[in-house]
Amino acid sequence: MFQYAMPTTLFFGKDCIAESGNIIQSFGKKALIVTGRHSAKINGSQKAVTDKLKELGISWILFDEVESNPSIQTVRKAAAAGQREGVDFVIAIGGGSPMDAGKVIALLCTNELDDAALFTGPYKKPLPIITVPTTSGTGSEVTKAAILTNPHAGTKQAVADPMLFPAASFADPAFTMAVSVPVTIDTAVDALSHAVEGYMARTATPVSDVWAEEAMRFIGARLPELGEPVSYEAREDLMYGSTLAGIVIAQTGTTLIHGMGYQLTYYKGISHGRANGMLFTSYMKLMAETMPDKVEKIWELLELDGMDDFIRCMKKIIPDTVKLTEQELLDYTKLTMPTNAVKNTSYDITPQIVSEIYADLK
Fold this sequence. Notes:
Elements: E1 9-12, H1 16-20, E2 30-34, H2 39-42, H3 45-56, E3 59-63, H4 72-85, E4 89-94, H5 96-108, E5 129-133, E6 145-150, E7 155-160, E8 168-171, H6 181-200, H7 206-220, H8 232-252, H9 256-268, H10 272-290, H11 292-301, H12 307-317, H13 326-336, H14 340-344, H15 351-359
Parallel strand pairs: 1-8, 2-3, 2-4, 4-5, 5-8
Antiparallel strand pairs: 6-7
């Protein structure tokens, strides 16, 4: 037996907000727009949303203070503004940080939760959530999870519930045209890790595997183009692959790469996708031991000749290293081991394995 649920209505393609945004009027008369300080203004996504809201006669307030790796303090500040203004729904515009923040803000607009209950529930129904992705990486536009920085736990953690699936998402690849080369690499690797981890997870299903293979096919074809200016056609493929990979992890969750990567982001300031890339090859070596047939299929989908070719590819686009102290190895391993990401991994993960992978990052 397996279960599949994907309640988000997805609109994909250039100008999809202008062409299909009338659905927004079904969510209410006043919106809270959640975004970061700059990129949504530069890439045209914020204007596309507000133009559609004006056309529909919907008012809005703007919260544009979401930082990378959003904090509990930030989402509480935005939710307080939403409650004060009596908003009916939330529109989150940006990469993973604004979309994840928007989900939690929608939740906090209808729930009184202390910092512990925020990550555990139970929850009442949040405000309706609309997402507009402007990077091709997180897949948050089609998932039921939001990642926040949790200082009480000393790491990044998920707020997750099926009620957090966005009601509607507008994925327009044109909004990614201004994304820098480094961020394009980071987000593409993040999307690829979603597809691969979901494909390998203990929780994988026949349906999630279909989406994972399709995501890898589209992302893999564009891997050689990372590191240089990327065409619209390539960005369309990367966004499509990223969205499909988001559908995958909405069903399966993530595995060891994410469980370990959060520590590198929280404590070392390494971007999420880059942290994933630094851990990717060690993860694939483990998977080759336990799931060789699927690993061979991955090389085929990514148009690679095998493990050595994959290692060369990852080293070319993410050459970063980090040297951890003995105490950091102990601390990061301790934080990783209790996570669902470890439980989802199709390998008997021990503290020694985690510590050795961290040590190999130097």
